[in-house]
Design brief:
about 400 residues; alpha/beta; Rossmann fold; Beta-Lactamase; 3 domains; five-stranded antiparallel sheet; 16 helices
């Protein structure tokens, strides 16, 4: 039987059976058609293949009879897959594939040939073909296999491309971040990823960080913080709940100590469990906190050292801070005075007295003072009250200073 007659019989057989058993088009699940470029020097075969594949699949197929024409088509249009014969004049299917991959075109490529030689299949796969399918056999089997190969190779290529694009976006985001990023495995302890910001924070190159031994990694953590840091790392690795962040001291390559704040979560890295950590250098913030604490400690020392009866009140005249002199004089503990109204402590009354400087300071926003003779504590006083605004300029606290007139006379 001639090749052309065999093709015509295959076509008739396919049309009569409506090709319902050949290809499960419902399994495709794609709204947009796949664009296929079919290259074969046999026009009759192209006609049969086009009708069989197009009728029962979501394919749009363009036909060409040579490799030269194929490259012209590829310049004009984007295709999801190429189906190519092996034996063609001028350039065969392997030449086509070799040139295609040489141009860095990663389009799905299926060698669809009547030659059954194993060496051709091996060469095709080595050159980057996605599938090798023999034309010989029943039309049902051959075209089912071809359609299935097209769908699966295109799906695989698209999934791979999406993965590559996702990784590129992730790496771009991570590399441009001012936060340091580390991905750590614990069995054995290993830094498998470090971004440039992390290298800058610690004074290492990213390659140096990734090549650190377990002992070298441990050396990045201050001795006093090692226990809590690695305990937290193991907790994260096992997916157990932990504090949202951790502040710890790190050791830079030059030996200097810095403060870092870490946020971590468990991830899968190359199909294995790992911990991804984000790190912020908070050294300057820690210095500022230390200065603020030092200032606060100084203020408390001065506040307690003064010989006046001093305390700080809120807008409702309740005592919020009290100095040691007041506590000693009244023979009270701080907790016995804090929360009480100043007039309750100083005058033993339930309401402010008529000439109360607290009321005047609250009303005018200016310091006020007054002489007080009828005090609950049994001595005349000079009382001064000064408002203390917050960052927004709101008057939220008032400093109350009471000085004994008897002590002044003496």
């Amino acid at each position: 039987m001639s090749k052309g007659l065999a093709l015509q019989e295959a076509k008739l057989h396919t049309i009569e059976t409506n090709s319902s058993a050949l290809i499960d088009s419902g399994a495709l699940g794609k709204k947009d058609p796949l664009h296929i470029l079919h290259v074969d020097d046999d026009v009759s075969l192209l006609e049969v293949s086009n009708q069989i594949l197009s009728d029962e699949n979501n394919f749009e197929i363009d036909d060409v009879t040579s490799v030269g024409e194929a490259f012209k088509k590829l310049e004009q249009k984007t295709y999801d897959a190429v189906v190519s014969d092996y034996e063609m004049p001028q350039k065969n299917g392997l030449d086509f594939l070799r040139e295609l991959r040489g141009q860095q075109r990663e389009i799905s490529f299926i060698l669809f040939t009547g030659r059954g030689r194993e060496d051709v299949a091996v060469k095709a796969l080595n050159l980057g073909a996605d599938r090798y399918i023999n034309k010989n056999g029943s039309p049902e089997t051959v075209y089912y296999e071809l359609a299935d190969a097209i769908n699966k190779t295109v799906e695989r290529k698209k999934a791979k491309q999406l993965l590559v694009e996702s990784e590129i976006k992730y790496r771009t985001l991570v590399e441009k971040s001012i936060q340091g990023t580390l991905i750590t495995k614990t069995s054995p302890l290993q830094l498998v990823f470090a971004n440039s910001a992390m290298g800058k924070i610690l004074g290492y190159s990213t390659d140096e960080l990734r090549s650190l031994s377990p002992l070298g990694i441990a050396g990045l953590i201050h001795d006093e913080d090692k226990a809590i840091f690695f305990s937290r790392l193991e907790t994260r690795m096992h997916g157990e709940p932990s504090d949202s962040s951790l502040e710890f001291r790190a050791v830079r390559k030059d030996g200097s100590i810095i403060w870092l704040e870490a946020f971590a979560n468990r991830i899968e890295y190359l199909s294995e469990p790992a911990v991804q950590g984000m790190f912020l250098d908070i050294t300057e913030r820690k210095k500022e906190e230390a200065l603020i604490k030092e200032d606060a400690d100084d203020w408390v020392r001065i506040f307690n050292a003064t010989n006046d009866l001093s305390f700080v009140m809120d807008k409702e005249n309740r005592i919020v801070k009290v100095n040691k002199r007041t506590c000693d004089f009244l023979n009270k503990k701080p907790e016995e005075l804090i929360g009480k109204h100043c007039y309750e402590v100083m005058h033993g009354t339930e309401q402010p007295w008529a000439n109360c400087p607290c009321k005047k300071a609250q009303k005018t926003g200016q310091s006020a003072s007054s002489k007080v003779d009828d005090t609950h504590i049994g001595m005349p006083l000079v009382v001064s009250v000064s408002p203390v605004p917050n960052e927004k300029g709101e008057l939220v606290e008032f400093v109350h200073i009471a000085r004994s007139l008897q002590e002044q006379k003496s």
